[in-house]
Write a structure and sequence with these properties.
alpha/beta, ten-stranded mixed sheet, two-stranded antiparallel sheet, 12 strands, about 35% helix
Length: about 325
């Protein structure tokens, strides 16, 4: 599998699929993606929610507006589920405090329609899809039919337009042959579809990677950052959790690997996984997926992610 080189000449076209509500590492991941865009390393084509909870689209709109990119297309699943709420109320807080153009999920484009429109417009084998949420939208995309945007069905469109899929997904503890991870089991049927039918290279940043990368404490202690929804989200959630060492950075590691590349930050392992009906991932023979593992650069990776999360809007 080829991986992107850091500081490549052309920005990587990216679509981000997020469940932004149940956890706030998605906020950190979006901060990274906007930082990469401002540095010329990525081009954000769209941000799409795989979570039907009512705060998801307004939250995405708050962050896009804050980072001076209010016109990035936003999509959302129109299914009733998954509908995973924001228990810590950080999303409700930043929606109430910060400006945003799209004020409800109803105002956003249906996820698959947006995927198909955006992908059809891109050069072949050019788009990096990053999923840091559920596989709901990607399964629906694979199952989609030809429409006004493309004569290709979903599987054909993905195969023609997508360069790679980078997913924060799965768990494979050391020495084990199976695991269970939230992004996979919340919509297990969709996960089964994607893992079985996806036909581009796939990089998986598993639970065990993000679990060891803690971020957010330096951010909330940074007195030079004011009126930031990123800082506010971490401040509220870390305080409510009584977390003094930093949130596990599952979603940030996927975005980081997708844009900056795998090496030297990660080791890789080629393997294949089957998703069971309950969302468990089981190791099976094959090399369909590239699984990330941490290297001795874990501390440097944590520092790099933290620094990117402090990125401020470009004026």
């Amino acid at each position: 599998m080829t991986t992107q080189l850091y500081a490549q000449q052309h920005p990587i076209p990216v679509i981000l699929d997020t469940d932004i509500a149940g956890d706030y590492d998605d906020v950190g991941a979006m901060a990274l993606l906007h930082a990469f865009a401002d540095k010329g390393e990525a081009k954000i084509l769209a941000v799409i929610s795989s979570n039907a909870f009512e705060t998801t689209v307004p939250t995405i709109s708050v962050l896009s507006t804050y980072f001076k990119k209010p016109h990035i297309p936003i999509g959302v699943t129109k299914r009733a589920k998954p509908n995973e709420l924001c228990q810590q109320q950080w999303a409700q807080a930043i929606i109430a405090r910060y400006p945003h153009n799209i004020r409800s999920n109803q105002q956003a484009t249906e996820a698959v329609a947006l995927y198909r429109r955006i992908l059809a417009q891109q050069p072949d084998h050019s788009v990096t899809l990053i999923t840091i949420g559920f596989f709901t939208n990607l399964a629906d995309l694979l199952n989609s039919k030809a429409d006004q945007y493309s004569a290709l069905n979903g599987r054909q469109l993905v195969k023609q337009k997508v360069k790679q899929l980078v997913a924060m997904a799965t768990s494979l503890p050391p020495g084990k042959t199976s695991g269970r991870e939230y992004n996979v089991y919340i919509d297990a049927a969709a996960s089964q579809t994607v893992f079985a039918q996806w036909e581009t290279p796939v990089i998986l940043s598993p639970f065990e990677v993000g679990e060891q990368v803690r971020t957010g404490i330096p951010l909330i202690k940074n007195n030079t950052i004011h009126n930031s929804p990123v800082k506010d989200a971490f401040q509220i959630a870390l305080t409510k959790d009584k977390d003094t060492i930093g949130r596990m950075s599952w979603d940030q590691t996927a975005v980081f690997a997708a844009v900056r590349g795998v090496h030297p930050w990660f080791k890789t392992r080629e393997l294949n996984l089957r998703i069971e009906k309950d969302g468990t991932d089981t190791l099976i023979p094959g090399n369909k997926f590239t699984l990330l593992e941490l290297t001795d650069q874990a501390t440097a990776l944590q520092q790099a992610i933290e620094e990117l999360m402090h990125h401020q809007p470009v004026h």
